[in-house]
Amino acid sequence: MTRADDRLPPFRREIGRIAPYRVESPPHERKLNQNESVLELPDALRATILKRLGSLPWRRYPDYPAVRLTERIARAERLPVDRVLVGHASNELMYALALSTLERGRSMLIPTPSYPVARLAALLAGGSVKRVPLGKNFQYDPERILAGIARHRPRLVFLPSPNNPTGSVLEREAVDRIAGATRSLVVIDEAYQEYSEVKLRPLLDRHRNLVLMRTLSKAYRVAALRIGYLLGDAEVLSHVERGKPPHSIDLLGQIAGEVIFEYPQFIREEVERVLEQRDWLAGRLHALPGVQVFPSQANFLLVRVPDAARAHRALLDGGCLVRPVGAGQGVRTRLRNCLRISLGTAADNRAVVRILGRQLEGRSR
Predict the structure, then answer these.
(1) Which of 59, 98, 218, 261 makes the best surface tag, with the fewest CB within 10 Å?
(2) CATH code for 43-265?
(3) Non-local CB neighbours of 177 within 8 Å, separated by 6+ positions
């Protein structure tokens, strides 16, 4: 049967400018491409979560807002409950921040290179994106950010620290200056803050326009459950909440978050392991011919190799899946020939060094 009309229905112009966010996952033995923890939750915590989940009705909607989880986070951060907003991981909260601040004619200021979801959120909210390049070795340059704010007058300033995919950080003094230089909303994505020396929580008492974004997907080991939250001024978060869908964090996520914040000391093992392996892997990779390792305060390393496409293929052939952020002939950004490597187990990290060493040795012959 012939269709009477083969024309597509109309879509927003912004949709045509956006590629779907997807993560390729070819066969592998060692998964080092998404900055997750390689450790599972302790068995006792998993058992507690599952026991509580089994005791509650599944036919009912989960609490909205997630009062008990919000209370536990607020207690841990020593903040009133109205200064915490829980959501379905940081991605949903990023979209809520964009929807609540941006509109046509308004912009978001972001560093480059950085986390791509911020750009997607800005465009879908109807806004535009203004970029500020990172400095030498992908370090933040506060003066460039301040100049970008003065020039573009963005409605939203989004600054991941530590930054993904570079691992670089904004010092507390720099964030203090940036938040004080504008009335715009300044959001610091702290997805990797547990691994960083820089602590920004004290600045919340100085700036109403400063918001910190956190996730339980990294050091807290529950990436599959998608739990995130914002810390900030109560009135600011009230506006952001209006851009967020209701019932966005499900029952399992709420219970898991509650249990985790009752026993937060377990993340020390994860943080200590990552810091030790980060130093070890950075040192071994730096010793390989033609490899540049960029400073990182996250649970991953950004490295530049002579040929990222070949290195990525060699690692994948050896069972190691990493993120080829700068591989391929069409890459013309500053990330050219860069790989992002998540910190795995000691065995994972040794495998990366061994495979890259062999690949580079063969290339130099």
Answers:
(1) 59
(2) 3.40.640.10
(3) 142, 146
